[in-house]
Amino acid sequence: MTFQDPAVDLDVTAQTISRAIAERDLTGLARQLGTLDLSQILDIGGRLEDRQRAVMFRLLPKDRALEVFERLDPALQRELVHDLQGGEVAELFAALEPDDRVWLLDELPAALATRLLRGLPDHERALTASVLGYPQHSVGRRMSPAYVSARPEHTAGQTLERVRARIDDAETIYTIPVLDATRHLVGIISLRDVLRAESSTALEQLMVDPHSALATEDAELAARRCAELRMPALPVVDAEQRLVGILTLDDAVRILEREEDEDSARQGGVEPLRRPYLATPVRSLVRSRIVWLLVLAVGATLTVQVLDAFEATLEQVTVLALFVPLLIGTGGNTGNQAATTVTRALALGDVGPRDVLRVLARELRVGLLMGLLLGVLGAVIAGLLYSPGIGLVIGLTLVGICAVAATIGGVMPLVARAVRVDPAVFSNPFISTFVDATGLVVYFVIARAVLGI
């Protein structure tokens, strides 16, 4: 079989690899894989079916296979674990860092996770178990227990010796926590400062006050702080300020990417896939969307009920029906804008549930101002096209709908956070459905009052 040059489109390369697997041309496939770099292999692996991916993985050199496995999404790691043989899985699992093992274990069935843990050497099993002991969404669950620490009385020279001794085992060496005799975190120092200092300089003269995260703190909040501080690693401590691990910047970015993917998906009315789109079975795509569609369909019955309740009003002034799509669309968009803005502010720590009244007042003013701008324009256009009365109804309704939608959209994420629900769940689809029904009530109430019907 003749293979395409690796510089061609990855879709073509993936199709070529699929044919090679189907025709059992494993020699040619191994030769083709040897011409691809790591990023190409990862991209192609995300385009193959599960069993094809497993065959491709088995043909990779051992070191390259480990690199690929470490970079895969946990969901794809789970599929590979399912398709590979027990010995291969145990070897790959043992080669992972403790925090990466926990990412994978969270995806695996309990029986398989337990079996893999039992196969680890005692030291590695203890490190992994220490991470597993923290709550599901805490930073303790995502930290690495493999780090280099030092004491305040150590000199720069002694610290460099410690770094060299642990350089192959530690998750990172660029940020060094400084601990006292009882392992309390008392400072932090960068490797750059250690290298710059005279070898006889004590660390207590070089270290700075540390930023840290409590092990039970929400992983997203700790990750965001690590990214904002631009720290190579954020120390993680227990309730008594004893160091238990570190959160590295790459793990912080990984956490934030995962959370943002989840929020984006739920704002669009689907569940996150947690794996590449082309590697996701059709049944999983359906499962990620159908529940939301059912929920939104049930919610849309509110709009139907409102229209039914005001059927007599529509019969008397049929022109009102022409503006229904415009008004509910404006209300939904206004609510979504407010919800997106406040959800983002929540993620950044700019606001919290305690600020609900301030957010409500602020969004009410924003909604009224936007409603006035749109309402004047709508009143003029509708008044010229139909009648001054219709124009006044449309103008007043836009003011009311924008004010209500902005207020609801701004407050709902705060309410969600207060009741410990993901704010994204209450975002765009849910708010649009709720605001549609509320906006129609406002519309018909104003129409009855202005037009006297």
Quick overview of this protein structure:
Helix content is 63%, strand content 5%. A hairpin with a 5-residue loop joins strand 4 and strand 5.
Description:
By secondary structure, the chain is mainly α. It has three domains: 10-134, MgtE N-terminal fold (Alpha Horseshoe); 156-265, Roll (CBS-domain); 281-451, Orthogonal Bundle (Tetracycline Repressor, domain 2). 63% of the residues lie in helices and 5% in strands. It has 20 helices and five strands. It has helices spanning 10-22, 26-33, 38-45, 50-58, 62-71, 74-83, 86-95, 98-105, 110-118, 122-132, 156-166, 191-196, 219-229, 249-267, 282-309, 311-316, 324-348, 356-385, 388-418, 428-451, and strands at residues 175-179, 185-190, 213-214, 233-237, 243-248. The strands form two sheets. The chain has a three-stranded mixed β-sheet with strand order 3-4-5. A two-stranded antiparallel sheet has the order 1-2. A hairpin with a 5-residue loop joins β4 and β5. α8 (98-105) packs across α10, α13 (219-229) packs across α14 and α17 (324-348) crosses α20.
